[in-house]
Design a protein that fits this description.
Layout lengths: L2 H33 L7 H12 L7 E2 L2 E2 L9 H4 L2 H9 L7 H4 L10 H15 L11 E2 L3 E2 L24 H11 L24 H11 L9 H10 L12 E2 L2 E2 L5 H4 L2 H11 L4
Antiparallel strand pairs: 1-2, 3-4, 5-6
């Protein structure tokens, strides 16, 4: 190749690359409104963004992968925690984590109720932005992240590698529901004794349910342990455990959406799975 040919090749390659970049840029801008959930940007969302910046939340947390990695990524936190939980947590993080036990250093910011509501609106907007699968793994606040194929260890549950037919094993099918429901149960609950996340550990849940039903302190409508577990899934506020940090004002922090998001068969499978923890 002569010098002139090399020069022409370089010029042509640069021009083609610039044209491709321009086309992709224009295409990206046409997709931004849909990808960023722009129609849902309300005044409350904008105010919540200001709260996020005013209190320097990004100094510890990440959002869309940007920020410090000292504390959990919050991109999808609103899909994993209900508004009631987030409200109570922002009011006083110390009720949920003991610094000496969990090494939680989240400071009490003394946010006003309006600031909390706006910040939740902002995080709810962020959770519905199309992030192309980010973050790639569910958040387990107390102990880190659950990696696909990870070995069982305290606070970490391996993600299933294939679907299980309920005819083959309803308990295994229930485990799939536990890991893949929206929001995933494992995002808030561990199955390891003593490992409490946003919700209590489910280790021994069947035995505890039997004891509660027989104790005379139960205030719901279930008649047995399986019924109590089902009730806890579809109507989590039917019975509130006094003094627990998982409720406020007589309402459980657990999302009350599973009755709609899960089929009756999936709920049966989930109950069968949880009944295996004695």
């Amino acid at each position: 190749m002569t010098t002139r040919q090399a020069r022409m090749f370089a010029i042509a390659s640069t021009a083609i690359a610039a044209l491709v970049f321009l086309i992709l840029t224009v295409h990206s801008h046409t997709r931004f409104p849909a990808l960023t959930n722009a129609e849902a940007i309300t005044p409350a969302v904008v105010a919540g963004k200001d709260v996020w910046h005013r209190y320097n939340c990004i100094n510890c947390h990440t959002l869309f992968g940007e920020g410090a990695y000292y504390a959990p990524d919050l991109t999808k936190i609103a899909q994993l925690r209900g508004d009631a939980y987030l409200t109570a947590y922002m009011r006083d993080p110390g009720q949920f984590y003991d610094e000496r036990v969990h090494r939680r250093l989240m400071p009490k910011q003394n946010l006003s109720d309006q600031e909390i509501a706006d910040l939740i609106a902002f995080l709810s907007w962020a959770s519905n932005v199309d992030t192309q699968g980010w973050p790639p793994r569910p958040i387990l606040v107390a102990t880190g992240l659950a990696a696909p194929g990870a070995a069982e260890q305290p606070g970490v549950t391996a993600v299933p590698t294939r679907p299980v037919s309920p005819e083959d094993d309803p308990i295994a099918a229930g485990e799939n529901v536990f890991k893949n429901a929206t929001p995933a149960c494992l995002a808030c609950h561990s199955t390891t004794p003593g490992v409490n996340l946003a919700g209590p550990s489910l280790a021994g849940i069947a035995s505890r349910a039997e004891e509660l039903i027989a104790s005379g302190e139960y205030t719901g409508e279930a008649e047995d342990a399986a019924g109590y577990i089902r009730e806890s899934i579809v109507a989590p506020s039917a019975h509130i455990i006094p003094g627990a940090m998982y409720s406020a004002g007589g309402m459980s922090f657990m999302p009350a959406t599973y009755a709609e998001s899960l089929s009756d068969e999936e709920i049966d499978q989930l109950v069968a799975y949880l009944m295996s923890f004695r």
